[in-house]
Write a structure and sequence with these properties.
The chain is built from 24 helices and 31 strands. It is an alpha/beta fold. Helix 1 crosses helix 2 and helix 7 packs parallel to helix 9. Bound molecules: FE3-S4 cluster (F3S). It is an enzyme of class 4 (lyase).
């Protein structure tokens, strides 16, 4: 469980030198984000400052965290790298595969029964390769990371979009796909486009019913779900300093909901208090010694317009509580203003459930403030109208909250205490009656409220608010209840008001826990066998991909995709999630969401060997079985969306040699390269129109594959006519070597063996 203090000290030791050098290169004072980024460059300093939003830069993150759904394929790939241990401290957290149904203990046991194969695999791989393993029930990845591993001025990546939560302790923490995590585990650099910077100046101080959650709900309303794209959001000002570290974590967590690369805060007394309360005095002492380097320069915060690409100012003293939703987290409405909107839009006003927890809002402070509202309901004889569900963020928080009587308070309102896990936040909620798809409203303190996310019912209107506001609204059972102005009627028929929430930033008697749920890896894991059953449906060991080689002839068109093709079209999520660790099984969703340009249908393409129309994966398998490579043709921005590596591994597994498109989403293009296949673009995008349904492809000069050199493709049509097409690519020499070896991992393995 132990954090790596030697690694942290090294980060701090080099900080002054690197930050001072960066200041010289940039020629001006620096933001905190820039200090952390320049301190984590993979190799030497550039001669010119990096251009924000333009330059791709190699970084060296300090640590990695993976959750159970994404860790499976990441670790299966890492196993191929031929390394004895991961190159940087890494942890795996079992939190996504636990369904919330009837309460913590039984739900946890059920998850262990149904997913033991996956958990055992993750535990044994972790043990073998020096990875810390957090058992099912230990907690939600981001809360556990904040409590144990996050540190001011650090840089981490995680295979989950809310990795950004660790910005609450002054980190640059970024969510990535498994392939990126594998690179860092295997001691390769991690590439990121140097982000733009958005500054958020917080003045004043929160009070009354307003919570840190309301800051990000307000910011989401201003920036919308796309407003943070490609940017780091850096918070500063007296208001920032006045909030707890976990409150800052909430704000950073939901930076994912505005598309931000990440969010962060400068090191301050709240972070020091949190570090000490969570047993990390050593880190606090070390951070104190370099404190000026762990926050932005004074001049930057005094004149932010000069240094940030965009600046937003929020007065916390004037900020009101918000309710955001439904169906999108940026639809912000001040509490008190929702009734009109709800009636106009037909949102049910009756609230059926109030859910508190998730990685966003499950700290001790969150639970204590929500409990202060719940307690008043009991004391004032008000019966809760909606049902309550609580997901503590970690076993440490749960144990401490139970010890301090907080969970009893919720249980007095008949709340269901679920496992310390994601549960309803990721659709792992067996909510009774959800299959009837009744229109209804719930309110929760989570981050995302997309359709179907909580209970699978597309008609569940999910609203997002602070934990204390969720508690008040769930007690009232009315979405338009405003605890600042409205009274409730109690069991005696009397009108009662709820007082403002109160709580504790940190547990007054300190944190405690009996079994935090951590398993440290053995020192030497070389003797550990990772066992995956041959007939497993959920896990499959990977075989190294065979190089495609420099002769691709007689390849057949698999699909010419019409229009938008995201990674969801290429590798759908939802029910396919359970196959994330089994490449062959998940490949049965290959491109099933993409539209075939020739018949405008999804998942129906012509198999040129039989002339019949078939699902895409079936046609791909038929070509593969016949020893024929296939080719995918696509439109603009092919592969946009998530960074999931399955979208590149599946076509590779099913024998696709090349993906030729008008343009790529960059991460997907890189993922194709990593898997050792060709990701190419039409030099003349109108050549897309030349591709016909029965086309055969011959690569004419692949034996001369070189950086900055076009490739030539001969396209044979059904009527025996031919077109010669020029193709562009962005492979550098190293990436061409990936192609030649069959994959990036094959190359790493080869170099290791030397
Ligand atoms: Fe889990 Fe929901 Fe967070 S799925 S990691 S609790 S966003």
């Amino acid at each position: 469980m132990a954090f790596d203090i030697d690694m942290i000290k090294k980060v701090y030791e080099r900080m002054a030198g690197r930050v001072d050098s960066a200041r010289k290169i940039v020629g001006r004072p620096l933001t905190l984000s820039e200090k952390i980024l320049y301190n984590h460059l993979w190799d030497g300093f550039p001669k010119e400052p990096f251009k924000r939003g333009v330059d791709y830069v190699d970084f060296a993150p300090d640590r990695i965290a993976c959750q159970d759904a994404t860790a499976q394929m990441a670790l299966l790939q890492f196993m191929q790298a031929g390394k004895k241990k991961v190159a940087v401290p890494t942890t795996v957290h079992c939190d996504h595969l636990i369904q919330a149904k009837i309460g913590a203990d039984k739900d946890l046991q059920e998850a262990i029964n149904t997913s033991s194969e996956v958990f055992n695999f993750l535990a044994s791989v972790s043990n073998k390769y020096g990875i810390g393993f957090w058992k099912p029930g230990a907690g939600i990845i981001h809360q556990v990371v904040l409590e144990n591993y996050a540190f001011p001025g650090g840089m981490m990546i995680g295979t989950d979009s809310h990795t950004v939560n660790a910005g609450g302790l002054g980190m640059i923490a970024i969510g990535v796909g498994g392939a990126d995590a594998v690179d860092v585990m295997a001691d390769m650099p991690w590439e990121l486009k140097f982000p733009k910077l958005i500054g958020v100046k917080l003045t004043g101080k929160l009070s009354g019913w307003t919570a840190p959650k309301d800051v990000i709900l307000k910011v989401a309303g201003i920036l919308t779900v796309k407003g943070g794209t490609g940017a780091i959001v850096e918070y500063f000002g007296e208001g920032a300093v006045s909030m707890s570290a976990t409150g800052k974590g909430t704000i950073c967590n939901m930076g994912a909901e505005i598309g931000a690369t990440t969010s962060t805060f400068g090191y301050d007394a709240s972070m020091e208090r949190y570090l000490r309360a969570t047993g990390r005095d050593e880190i606090a002492d070390a951070a104190n010694k370099v404190a000026p380097y762990l926050t932005g320069d004074d001049e930057v915060y005094e004149n932010p317009e000069k240094y940030f690409d965009q600046v937003i100012e929020i007065d916390l003293s004037a900020l009101k509580p918000y309710i955001n939703g439904p169906f999108t987290p940026d639809l912000a409405t001040e509490v008190g203003g929702i009734k009109e909107k709800a009636i106009k839009n037909g949102w049910p006003l009756e609230v059926e459930w109030g859910l508190i927890g998730s990685c966003t809002n499950s700290s001790y402070e969150d639970l204590s403030r929500a409990a202060s509202i719940a307690k008043q309901a009991v004391d004032k004889k008000v019966k809760a109208k909606a049902e309550f569900g609580i997901n503590p963020g970690s076993e440490q928080v749960r144990y401490t909250a139970e010890r301090d009587g907080l969970l009893d308070i919720f249980e007095n309102l008949d709340a269901m205490i679920f496992t310390n896990a994601c549960g309803p936040c990721i659709g792992q909620w067996a909510r009774e009656g959800a299959d009837k798809q009744k229109k209804n409203t719930i309110i929760h303190s989570f981050n995302r409220n997309f359709s179907k996310r909580a209970d699978g019912n597309p008609n569940t209107h999910a609203f997002v608010a602070s934990p204390e506001m969720v508690a008040a609204i769930a007690i009232s059972g009315k979405l338009d209840f405003n605890p600042m102005t409205d009274a409730l009627i109690n069991a005696d028929g009397k009108e009662v008001m709820l007082d403002e929430p109160t709580g504790f930033e940190l547990p007054p008697k300190g944190f405690d826990v009996e079994d935090p749920g951590f398993v440290a890896p053995v020192e030497d894991g070389s003797g550990i066998d990772v066992i995956v059953s041959e007939d497993s449906k959920r896990l499959q060991l990977l075989d190294p991909f065979t190089p495609i080689g420099d002769k691709i002839t007689n390849a057949k068109l698999l699909i010419k995709v019409f229009g938008k093709c995201t990674t969801d079209h290429i590798s759908m999520a939802g029910p396919w999630l359970r196959f994330r660790g089994h490449l062959d099984n998940i490949s049965n969703n290959l491109l099933i969401g993409a539209v075939n340009a020739f018949n405008q249908e999804t998942n129906s393409v012509k198999n040129q060997l039989t002339g019949e129309y078939q699902p895409v994966p079936d046609a791909a398998r038929a070509y593969k079985a016949a020893g024929i490579y296939s080719v995918v043709v696509g439109d603009h921005n092919y592969g946009e969306g998530s960074s999931r590596e399955h979208a590149a591994m599946e076509p590779r597994h099913l024998g696709v040699a090349a993906v030729i498109v008008k343009s790529f989403a960059r991460i997907h293009e890189t993922n194709l390269k990593k898997q050792g296949m060709l990701g190419l673009t039409f030099a003349n995008e109108n050549d897309y129109d030349l591709i016909q349904e029965n086309d055969t492809f011959n690569f004419v000069d692949l034996d001369q594959f070189a950086p900055d050199k076009q490739l030539t493709l001969e396209v044979e049509h059904d009527d025996r006519t031919k077109d010669i097409i020029k193709l562009n690519h962005t492979y550098n020499q190293n990436q061409i070597d990936w192609y030649k070896e069959g994959s990036a991992l094959n190359l790493i393995k080869k170099e290791n063996a030397k």
